[in-house]
Amino acid sequence: MCRKCHRVIRYLLAPHVPACARALGLPRTLGELRGASVPVLASGPAQVAITFDDGPHPEGTPLMLEILARHDATATFFLVGEQVARRPALAARILAQGHCIGLHGQLHRPHPVRSPRSLAEDLQRGLAAIEDATGARPRLHRPPYGLYSPASLRLAREQGLQPLLWSRWGKDWRRFTTPARIARRAVGRAGAGDVILLHDADFYSARRSHLHTAAALPEILETLRSEELCTVALDLMQT
Questions:
Q1: Model pLDDT, residue 70
Q2: How many Å apart are CA 46 and CA 93, to the nearest integer?
Q3: Could you report the per-residue pLDDT of 96-109, keeping only the tens digit for each?
Q4: How far is CA 192 from CA 36, 203, 227, in A?
Q5: Nearest to 86 by CA among 121, 55, 118, 124
Q6: Is the whole model's pTM more than 0.85, yes or no?
Q7: Which of 228, 184, 230, 212 minimizes the C-alpha distance to 72?
Q8: How confident is the model over 209-232, as a mean pLDDT?
Q9: What is the set of active-site residues?
Q10: What is the pLDDT, as a whole number, of residue 12?
Q11: What percent of the chain has pLDDT over 90?
Q12: What's the distance, CA 179 to chain centroid?
């Protein structure tokens, strides 16, 4: 699927994510996630979670890791199995640097148009790719574009995966966005418990979009700190 197709699908499907999440009872915030008895690496009321989708990426992921390290911040990376298979050492580096990993699928394709059989294979292959690369099995899952099908939600839960969507996002996958817009959308009104969606890769987004995200990330982290909100990674790996 071409980049343009991915962008078009995002424009079409993204507005439906909050309504679908509410209808299915899927967590979008840390409070809702804790309601599902999920542990986190830090405690305290003033927490937010920064999450990155679509990696690992040979340029974008190291950039995000370096910026996070400079700001003493943690994040959760939802990885795509086909990209992990190409860069297993980079997936392992994410975990080694104190961040957490979730599964974003083996392939970045919308679940509602896929068969139950292909979805079951996708989950198994994605989990295996991450476990082979890191020695740990993720327990957190986010579907491509944030939309499950009835079959994929059932299959994810059967695999022991906990769904997590998001409450804020930078819309950093857009072709004509800017770092300032990304930061404003991501944290302009952020509060305790928010889950913020960003992307560390441009495989399924506008070309070089990860550079806009990297440019926005320091402002995002500085804004959170000025609001006395600490970042938290989600402790959801089974070794």
A1: 98
A2: 27
A3: 999 999 999 999 99
A4: 18, 31, 10
A5: 55
A6: yes
A7: 230
A8: 96
A9: 53, 199
A10: 64
A11: 79
A12: 19
Say yes or no to pLDDT of 43 above 60: no
Tokens for 122, please give them.
């996708």
Q: What per-residue string of b and e applies to 211-226 under the rule 16 or more CB within 10 Å gives b?
A: ebbbbbbebbbebbee
Specify the pLDDT at position 24.
84
Q: Do 156 and 123 contact (CB within 8 A), yes or no?
A: yes
Reported residue count of the chain is 239
Return the amino acid letter for 9: I
The dihedral through the CA atoms of 109, 115, 118, 121 has a sign that is positive
Q: What residue ranges define each of the domains in the chain, with the CATH number in brackets?
A: 3-238 (3.20.20.370)
Interatomic CA distance for residues 95 and 136, integer angstroms: 9
Query: Does the pLDDT of residue 129 top 70, yes or no?
Result: yes
Counting Cα atoms < 13 Å in the Cβ hemisphere of 76 gives 30
pLDDT tens-digit profile of 170-188? 999 999 999 999 999 999 9
Q: Has residue 42 got a pLDDT over 60?
A: no
